[in-house]
């Protein structure tokens, strides 16, 4: 038996391969141009399949947007979306009546539960310079007992996300941001939504980003729980060592969660996303945006959506965006409004 902590290495595709309790992970890295007066690309859309554009033509896509890029109103049931925006902004609206503009390191955690419709649009706010957008969207499954809970909307502002900066013996820095899960030295973890798998005892869910300076070394500590699975997504950089194994191209790397794993970076800055958790271990039935345990439940989800539209869409537009001047904010279904704290 090999002593290597590396269990599996797969090339990164779109979306990235995931393991239970995660269902899906998409990395969007779009080099959007300047925006026009509508916050749409100030560029020709010729040659794009508008409404279904995943082409990455000129380094960016319109996705399902026809003016502003993004994803107009669409339903979900039976799981959660965790959206971490590293560059740019998302304008969010949903059938609960919640709205938000978030980005620049913020994360949104949306429990779809029994059903929610939401839109995620990418307004191009800058008219005199480029509008890069970089984000992860992660789908985290819900256990059967929580698949029909009421939907829940949560914002984690960048300034509130616990972070740890560590220098190795050579003075080279590794920085870890913890959207979910504890990390010694990073401070108290943010509480996940109450019905999330991440909130269940022993679920051991962690969502971290890891940035390493050239030549940096850092040891990833072992997970806390029993039966946890852990994937490292090496998505930026040239080469890294994972537990003594060289990885020279971007990859999804499953490592043993019960062991400390040394990460050694090569000659250019490297970044990872880490997803870990104890598997839910239940049957998964999926049809597009609905994730349940049986095909009968999928059929019921489709019927319920046709009948109720999961509460209906309270906005005039299927792809609403806020004004260019609007700053980051979140308005919850009960009308409560919050904004990120100003940096000290």
TrEMBL record:
<protein>
    <submittedName>
        <fullName>Pirin family protein</fullName>
    </submittedName>
</protein>
<dbReference type="InterPro" id="IPR003829">
    <property type="entry name" value="Pirin_N_dom"/>
</dbReference>
<dbReference type="InterPro" id="IPR008778">
    <property type="entry name" value="Pirin_C_dom"/>
</dbReference>
<dbReference type="InterPro" id="IPR014710">
    <property type="entry name" value="RmlC-like_jellyroll"/>
</dbReference>
<dbReference type="InterPro" id="IPR011051">
    <property type="entry name" value="RmlC_Cupin_sf"/>
</dbReference>
<feature type="domain" description="Pirin N-terminal">
    <location>
        <begin position="65"/>
        <end position="140"/>
    </location>
</feature>
<dbReference type="Pfam" id="PF05726">
    <property type="entry name" value="Pirin_C"/>
</dbReference>
<dbReference type="InterPro" id="IPR012093">
    <property type="entry name" value="Pirin"/>
</dbReference>
<feature type="compositionally biased region" description="Basic and acidic residues">
    <location>
        <begin position="322"/>
        <end position="344"/>
    </location>
</feature>
<feature type="region of interest" description="Disordered">
    <location>
        <begin position="315"/>
        <end position="344"/>
    </location>
</feature>
<dbReference type="Pfam" id="PF02678">
    <property type="entry name" value="Pirin"/>
</dbReference>
<feature type="domain" description="Pirin C-terminal">
    <location>
        <begin position="208"/>
        <end position="311"/>
    </location>
</feature>
<comment type="similarity">
    <text>Belongs to the pirin family.</text>
</comment>
């Amino acid at each position: 038996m090999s002593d290597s902590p590396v269990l599996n290495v797969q090339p990164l595709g779109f979306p990235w391969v995931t393991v239970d309790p995660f269902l899906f992970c998409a990395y969007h890295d779009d080099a959007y141009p300047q925006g026009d007066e509508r916050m749409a690309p100030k560029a020709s859309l010729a040659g794009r399949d508008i409404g279904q554009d995943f082409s990455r033509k000129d380094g960016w896509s319109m996705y399902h947007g026809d003016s502003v890029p993004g994803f107009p109103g669409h339903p979900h049931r039976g799981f959660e979306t965790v959206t971490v925006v590293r560059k740019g902004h998302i304008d969010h609206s949903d059938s609960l009546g919640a709205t938000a503009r978030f980005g620049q390191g913020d994360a949104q955690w949306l429990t779809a539960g029994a059903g929610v419709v939401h839109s995620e649009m990418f307004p191009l706010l800058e008219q005199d310079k480029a509008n890069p957008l970089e984000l992860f969207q992660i789908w985290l499954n819900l256990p059967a007992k929580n698949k029909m809970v009421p939907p829940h909307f949560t914002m984690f502002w960048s300034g509130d996300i616990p972070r740890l900066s560590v220098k190795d013996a050579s003075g080279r820095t590794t920085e870890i941001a913890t959207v979910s899960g504890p990390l010694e030295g990073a401070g108290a973890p943010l509480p996940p939504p109450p019905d999330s798998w991440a909130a269940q005892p022993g679920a051991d869910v962690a969502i971290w980003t890891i940035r390493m300076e050239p030549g940096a070394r850092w040891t990833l500590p072992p997970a806390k729980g029993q039966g946890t699975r852990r994937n490292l997504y090496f998505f930026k950089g040239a080469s890294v060592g994972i537990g003594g194994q060289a990885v020279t191209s971007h990859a999804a790397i499953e490592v043993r969660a019960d062991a400390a794993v040394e990460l050694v970076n090569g000659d250019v800055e490297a970044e990872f996303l880490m997803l870990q958790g104890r598997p839910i271990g239940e049957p998964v039935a999926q049809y597009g945006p609905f994730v349940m345990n049986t095909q009968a439940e999928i059929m019921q989800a489709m019927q319920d959506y046709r009948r109720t539209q999961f509460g209906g869409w309270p906005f005039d537009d299927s792809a609403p965006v806020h004004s260019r001047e609007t700053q980051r904010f979140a308005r919850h279904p009960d009308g409560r409004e919050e904004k990120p704290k100003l940096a000290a």
